[in-house]
Each structure stands twice: as C-alpha cells, then as structure tokens.
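Box 3.1 A note on notation
Throughout this textbook, protein chains are presented in two layers. The first layer is the amino acid sequence; the second is a token string describing backbone geometry. Keep the layers aligned when reading.
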Amino acid sequence: TAPGNEVRDYMMATPLVDSVGAALTALQVSGPVYSEFQLNIPFDMEKDARAWGYADLKDNRVDIDAPPMMLEKATGRIQFDNDVVTTSGLSAELLSQPISLDFHGESADQGYNVTINTLGDWDVEPLKPYLGERWLSLVSGHAPWQMDIDLQLNDVGFTYQVDVLAQLGRLASEYPYPLTKKVGEAGQAKLQASGNQESISARLQIPNAKYQTEIDISGDVPVLTATNLVLGKGGFKISPVVGHDASIRLDELNLDKWATLLDTPESKAQSVLANMKTPTIPLPTRIEVETPNLLLGGIEFHDLALNASKKNLSWQLDVNSQEVKGKATYLKPYDLSVSLDHLHLYLPDFEEMTKERSSIFASEDQSAPLITNFDRKFHAEMP
C-alpha cells in the first residue's frame, strides 16, 4: 500500500514505464492505493518478461488531463498485464454526481493508446453551483449520458477525441423559442471534440441549435479563435472553421424575450465556472437571419431576410421584409447611414396611445408609458 503518486513513480522506474506507468499518467491517482503485482523475468533472452497484477482504489481522487476531469471517491480495481491496463465499472463522482467508468490502455506503434467510457444520469439542480444559477434556472429534470474518450499518448504530447451523447427526454427548458422544451419531448445533445495540448476543435448540437468552435489552449486562458452558431435549419461547417458566424433560420424569432433574458442580473453566488479561467464567447461578425415572423422592440417584421457583417470597425446591414427594405452602415458610436427603398411600420401601441391622449407630446400626461430597457439601450447605441 502506498500513495497513488508513489505507485506511479515506482512504475515509471521499472520496465512498466511504457504501460502501467503511462496509464497511471493518464489517470493520476491521489490517496492510498493497494497494489499487488508479479514479475516473470526469464533468464532466456529470447523469452519476453511479463508483469501482471492489480491496483485497488477506494475513495481516491483521480485527475484526467485530457480532457481535464477531476473524479472524487473513485473506487474499483485497475488490472494490468504487461502493456494492457484495464478497469471495468470503476465508480466515482464527477461534479458531485455519480458516474461509472471503464478504462482500457494498450501500447501502440507510437506511444500508448487509452480508451475511457463513462456513464452517468445527472440532475440539473446539483450542477448549478458549478455552472451557474443564471443559465440553469430555466432548466429542470435529469438526463442520462455517455462519454467516450480516445487518448493517444506519445513522446511529444497527446491527442484525443471525445464523444458525448445525452438523452434529453426527461429535461424541461423554459428558455424562449427555439430552446423551449417540455418533459417527455424526445431530444439529444451531442458533443464532439478533438485536440491536443495546443488546440481543440469542438461541435455541440442540441434540438434546434448547433455550435462549433476552434479553441487555442496554448496560453494561460483559452481563446475561441473561430465560432459558428446555427439556430434552426442549417448544418455544421467543415472544420476548421474561420471567423465568427451566426445563421438563424426559424419559423419565428422573439428578440424581445431573448433581450429580457440576457438582461437578467448575475446571481450574487458565484459559480465554480465563473472563478475559472474560462474563455470569452466572441460575438458574431457575420449574421444571416431568415424568418417569417420577427418581433423586435414591440414591432413585428414579416418575411424578413437580414445580412449583417462587420468590416474593420463598421457594420454593414442589408434587410428585406414586408415592412422595411434597404441598407445601412453603422460605425459605433459616431455614424449611422441608412438608405431605404421602403418603410412601413405598424405600431399598435402608438395607435392606441393617440386615441387615449390629447397630445402624445404632453409631458404632463401621466398616462404616457415608461421608457423600456430596450428604448434606453437602443438610444445609447445610436450616434
């Protein structure tokens, strides 16, 4: 019996350095470990030596470098036979929720290959201290999931591939459309990522939404060098993606609801994620919107097609709908140039207001509506 790091260091100083030593580097065990192993070293040089045995974990902490994970209360047996290292049904806790883990490691032509298969069924509530109340307050229920990791260790570093699949049938979401969901509605979340010690390419897909990104992890804080967001119809781009794009093709889009949601103040209790060196999510610089119905600032737009792109410091917009058609150039906060082919807006609140008030300009008229947050933000952005 010895601490996990001492068992690893011992294996690294033996002929097991390329097998058990490599496996215990991929799975860094902290706390006491009980191990038994046997060595068969023949005097005949033509015969291969053999080392086999096991290491028992009981409520140990296990750190996985790629992708980074910290397992608590890991319990189970790791078996090894020369270069082959396996464990089946290792139980542990990840983010304070139970998981089951299988592990298989084996020497390859160049380096050492590791496969990790993980199963879990997580509730949303225990994730709030880690991910944040603000983003999970509108989500409830639980989701069974599985994660498969393929890791290749070599002399100069590592490469890995991750596939995560979660079943969302028992989850409910009160986010605005298109992310609204009721319990019992079928759906899956898929995450695919591949990378090495310098960069990661990742794809996330949930019902009605897709997101892909290229991440530079060579520095102290990860940087999202390229992103692609798809809401509604549309597929992933071929990796690696370039730039920061957003494509929205939905039956309807209520930007007022999303603006209200994003304006929700942060919770006073900081999450674990908020205290980590997490990357900043960049805003899109190229945006395409196609929708039959758009609500913005209380105004409805129909059969809308919008293209917006940022070049240098200015935005160029091209919009076409039943209500408005034209182009605009916007350099925040100095210049706004608009050229319209037509403009026809229906403002039901304005029409009702003219019926009830003698003058829409009378400041003493106490029935005048209060200025909304949208009004304040819109006027603050205008030159």
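Residues 59 and 267 are 33 Å apart (CA to CA). The chain has two domains: 1-105, 124-294.
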